């Protein structure tokens, strides 16, 4: 109780916690659920990652490695995946297991957890992860087989997603929504306290199964303390006052304070903090509603005009002035470079060529009008783009909408031109290209661009079934190039994960899928 009291104490010095190893961060968006089936947004994903494990996970190089499954294999036809579970992995203590306090994980828990995602009564946003699955069967207490409807090489990547975390089968005896507030997982931490909109405390799981290379039990931390300060400027001040160990992302309220124009940490903070950066599997982009712009009466049906927009936008300026250098100008395609190493298409900032393309189209200047639909968070980016396009004769109007309205309008096809971003669900180029597959037209999928192309679909179908690594890379490159040749999408930047971390937590790992990885973090006292 003394430990818990110390953690919930918000006094400046936090003197009572000095003998404990506690990592402190803020979640401005709040946390809505601790049920992994609802771990859709980063705010929920980060905490779910501390509480649960999946069968497999990514390493630092985005390669699949075992987690709860100590071994796994795939059949030659790509249809069956066999998993052998670790022994001696225990769930967090819970009255679920009465009269016992806990029990070991078994294959029936895995079967329940994955089948649960498809339960229409749950209405989980992660239900789509099981679309490829035909059946899930426990073979023994510690082994199971997953059979797919057809080969899908990225399937192991899907199983790394937090949606696919393993929960005890006894959850099925509880009311819907119970797991949201009463998490029972196998992760390195368990929930100790949750006061809505105030504080969440996670404690070290003493039965956690992972060891470090020296045979020491993980995690090293005693606890994690999460606050819910909604104002990001206020959270920044908490970091400066040493009440937080990290802030993630660059908010406009403080980015110019901590970074110089080259994206480097302001010298005044270098003794106390570390600036962490890593390439992030997130593409910021503009896209056309292809079904609308390819109508004969629409001037933007001329691909030269769409290509002119891509050439006219100074993407380097967007990264430099709006993100203080935290990002990479998107000059090679929609799929991030880490997932598309065989680059075929490249372009550069070339407003003169943009003017030539516009002139060759013969479209009257008065018809060079376009409305860009975006949200308030990206209004400054839209204004820079507006200025760039004006220089080549394109009149861009900006329509700022609430995020929920924009999503609805994109899904319904009401908008012609919009700003979007795509964060990888799993580390495979196929995940990005699925946004332009004709079978993913809304409401069936996320093809809000309403792009249809026979060749693209044929290549996508092959990509989704072939296991040949070289062939897959070729197809990813070819499809990405086709999108750029048709100019249905205009990638703006490949994002970066940016964190400002207190030096006592300087060894905090950073990765391109932006998971908060705390298992191996060893920090000094505040």
UniProtKB/TrEMBL annotation:
- Cross-referenced CDD domains: PBP2_NikA_DppA_OppA_like
| GO-annotated cellular components | ATP-binding cassette (ABC) transporter complex; outer membrane-bounded periplasmic space
**Which residues belong to any copy of the Solute-binding protein family domain?**
63-439
Gene3D superfamilies noted in UniProt = Dipeptide-binding Protein, Domain 1, Dipeptide-binding Protein, Domain 3, Periplasmic binding protein-like II
GO MF, one term, reads: peptide transmembrane transporter activity
An individual GO BP term? peptide transport
InterPro entries associated with the record? Peptide/Ni-bd, SBP_5, SBP_5_dom
UniProt xrefs under Pfam families: SBP_bac_5 (PF00496)
**Which protein are we looking at?**
Peptide/nickel transport system substrate-binding protein
What is the native source organism of this protein? Schleiferia thermophila
């Amino acid at each position: 109780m003394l430990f818990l009291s110390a953690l919930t104490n918000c006094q400046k010095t936090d003197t009572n916690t000095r003998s404990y190893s506690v990592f402190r961060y803020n979640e401005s968006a709040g946390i809505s659920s601790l049920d992994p089936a609802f771990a859709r947004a980063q705010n929920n994903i980060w905490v779910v990652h501390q509480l649960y494990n999946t069968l497999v996970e990514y390493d630092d190089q985005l390669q699949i490695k075992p987690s709860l499954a100590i071994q796994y294999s795939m059949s030659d036809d790509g249809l069956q995946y066999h998993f052998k579970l670790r022994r001696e992995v225990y769930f967090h203590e819970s009255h679920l297991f009465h009269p016992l306090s806990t029990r070991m994980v078994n294959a029936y828990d895995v079967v329940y957890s994955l089948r649960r995602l498809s339960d229409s009564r749950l209405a989980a946003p992660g239900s789509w992860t099981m679309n490829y699955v035909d059946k899930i069967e426990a073979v023994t207490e510690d082994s199971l087989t997953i059979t797919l409807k057809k080969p899908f090489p990225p399937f192991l990547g899907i199983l790394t997603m937090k949606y696919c975390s393993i929960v005890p089968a006894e959850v099925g005896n509880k009311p819907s929504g119970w797991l949201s507030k009463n998490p029972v997982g196998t992760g390195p931490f368990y929930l100790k306290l949750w006061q809505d909109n105030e504080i969440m405390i996670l404690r070290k799981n003493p039965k956690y199964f992972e060891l470090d290379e020296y045979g020491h039990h993980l995690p090293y931390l005693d606890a994690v303390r999460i606050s819910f300060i909604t104002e990001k400027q206020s959270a920044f001040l908490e970091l400066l006052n040493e009440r937080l160990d990290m802030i993630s992302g660059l908010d406009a309220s403080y980015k110019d304070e901590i970074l110089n124009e080259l994206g480097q940490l302001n010298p005044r903070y270098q003794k106390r903090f570390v600036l962490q950066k890593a390439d992030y599997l997130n593409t910021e982009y503009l896209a056309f509603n292809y079904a609308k712009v390819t109508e004969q009466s629409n001037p933007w049906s001329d691909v030269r005009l769409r290509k002119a927009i891509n050439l006219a936008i100074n993407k380097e300026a967007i990264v430099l002035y709006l993100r203080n250098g935290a990002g990479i100008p998107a000059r090679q395609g929609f799929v991030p470079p880490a997932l598309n190493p065989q680059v075929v298409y490249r372009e550069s900032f070339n407003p003169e060529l943009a003017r030539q393309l516009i002139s060759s189209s013969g479209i009257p200047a008065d018809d060079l009008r376009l409305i860009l639909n975006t949200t308030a968070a990206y209004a400054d980016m839209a204004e820079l783009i507006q200025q760039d396009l004006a220089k080549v004769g394109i009149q861009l109007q900006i329509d700022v909408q609430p995020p929920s309205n924009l999503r609805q309008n994109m899904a319904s096809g009401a908008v012609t031109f919009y700003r979007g971003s795509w964060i990888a669900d799993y580390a495979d180029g196929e995940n990005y290209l699925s946004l332009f597959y004709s079978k993913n037209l809304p409401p069936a999928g996320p093809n809000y661009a309403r792009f249809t192309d026979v060749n693209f679909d044929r290549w996508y179908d092959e990509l989704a079934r072939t296991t040949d690594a070289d062939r897959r890379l070729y197809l990813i490159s070819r499809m990405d190039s086709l999108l750029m040749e048709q100019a249905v999408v205009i990638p703006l930047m490949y994002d970066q994960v940016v964190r400002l971390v207190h030096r006592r937590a300087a060894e905090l790992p950073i990765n391109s899928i932006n998971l908060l990885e705390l298992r191996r973090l060893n920090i000094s006292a505040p």
